[in-house]
């Protein structure tokens, strides 16, 4: 069984965790329930996310199961979360116990706040690239949807987290499985507009 732990905090960007959550749970469904994805927060009350969605975590920092993958989202609440020692200490303490540490969007800045990007290559949302680049000990990578450095995987803004999650389940369970999940969720992006 692979257990994915997705961090929640006030102001977390909804799609940053919900997109990968969809991929991880679809992976579990196509593996006869062999995997699970759990939402984890520092308290057990509802978390109000970046755009107002209220989400109830499955576990707290004190009672979650052993994790194989840690996912850290971004969002407007990322700054306050990065200043919350309870959150950054938990992320820092959890990272060495998992197989993969991942982030979506400005979650990479929260990884940095937790001391996990020193000497690493990383990416983030385009609007936060200057902030990440200005931070000590991390090398910004631009124009890549996600960046793998050792067991740390950072991805760009919201939808890039879905790409990263598909890549990750391909690494964990094989490319054919990941392709099956991609087909199951019908993830073949064809945006109506080019930017």
Report the C-alpha radius of gyration, rounded: 15 Å
Mind describing the biggest β-sheet?
7 strands, mixed
Determine the mean pLDDT: 96
Number of strands: 11
Gross CATH architecture: 3-Layer(aba) Sandwich
Distance between the termini: 40 Å
Helix content: 25-40%
Strand order across the biggest sheet? Answer: 5-2-1-6-7-11-10
User: Which parts are unreliable, with pLDDT below 50 for 5 consecutive residues or more?
Assistant: none
CATH superfamily: Class I glutamine amidotransferase (GATase) domain
Number of helices: 7
The CATH C-level name is: Alpha Beta
Oligomer: single chain
Percentage of residues in strands: 15-25%
N-to-C SSE string, H for helix and E for strand = EHEEEEEHHEHEHEEEHH
Shape: globular
CATH fold title: Rossmann fold
How many structural domains are formed by the residues? 1
Explain how this protein is built.
This protein is 35% helix and 22% strand. The protein has a single domain, classed as Rossmann fold, CATH 3.40.50. The strands form three sheets. A seven-stranded mixed sheet has the order 5-2-1-6-7-11-10, with helices on both faces. Strands 3-4 form a two-stranded antiparallel ribbon. A hairpin with a 5-residue loop joins strand 3 and strand 4. It is an alpha/beta fold and 195 residues long.
């Amino acid at each position: 069984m692979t257990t994915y732990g997705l961090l929640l905090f006030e102001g977390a960007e909804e799609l940053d965790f919900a997109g990968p959550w969809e991929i991880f749970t679809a992976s579990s469904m196509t593996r006869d329930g062999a995997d699970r994805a759990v939402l984890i927060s520092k308290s057990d009350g509802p978390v109000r996310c970046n755009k107002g969605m209220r989400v109830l975590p499955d576990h707290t920092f004190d009672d979650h199961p052993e994790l194989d993958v840690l996912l850290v989202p971004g969002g407007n609440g990322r700054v306050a979360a990065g200043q919350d020692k309870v959150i950054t200490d938990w992320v820092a303490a959890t990272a060495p116990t998992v197989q993969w540490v991942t982030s979506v969007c400005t979650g990479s800045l929260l990884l940095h706040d937790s001391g996990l990007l020193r000497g690493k290559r990383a990416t983030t949302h385009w609007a936060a690239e200057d902030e990440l680049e200005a931070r000590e000990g991390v090398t910004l990578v631009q124009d890549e949807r996600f960046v793998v450095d050792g067991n740390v995987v950072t991805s760009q803004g919201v939808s890039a987290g879905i790409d990263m999650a598909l890549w990750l389940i391909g690494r964990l369970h094989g490319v054919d499985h990941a392709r099956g999940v991609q087909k199951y969720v019908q993830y073949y992006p064809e945006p109506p507009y080019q930017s």
